[in-house]
Amino acid sequence: MAVKEKNTAGSLSSTPRYKTYSIAEVMAAGGATAFANKLGKNSANIQDRLNKLPNDAFLTKEETDKALETLNEKSVLNRGQHYQQ
To answer: What distance in Å separates the CA atoms of residue 9 and residue 15, rounded to the nearest whole number?
Structure first.
């Protein structure tokens, strides 16, 4: 999960900075909903923003299936490398 941070360093970078959180940090906060609440986010606002997105902003079922297949393949490969070390 990533949260946009304000640039207080005074740098001229035009790209926004994001603070990222690990899955362990999210789970330690009590899960995704509790974590979002701690960051001042709520599911109603998120759902409203998602509803305003155009349909082509979302993956199709085929794209989702392919992405999950790729992630699963990489996960299996990474686990195999981990055990070989």
So the answer is: 13
Predicted pLDDT of residue 61: 95
Q: Give me the amino acid identity at 19.
A: K
Give the side-chain half-sphere CA count within 13 A for 43: 4
Average of per-residue pLDDT across 27-45: 84
Average pLDDT, the chain: 78
Measure CA of the first residue to CA of the last residue in the chain; give whole Å.
29
Q: Residue with structure tokens 């995704």? A: 32
Structure letter (DSSP) for residue 3: E
User: What Cα–Cα distance (Å) separates residue 42 from each residue in 34, 38, 39, 53?
Assistant: 9, 9, 9, 18
Task: Please tell me the distance from the alpha carbon of residue 22 to that of residue 71, in angstroms, as a whole number.
Answer: 18
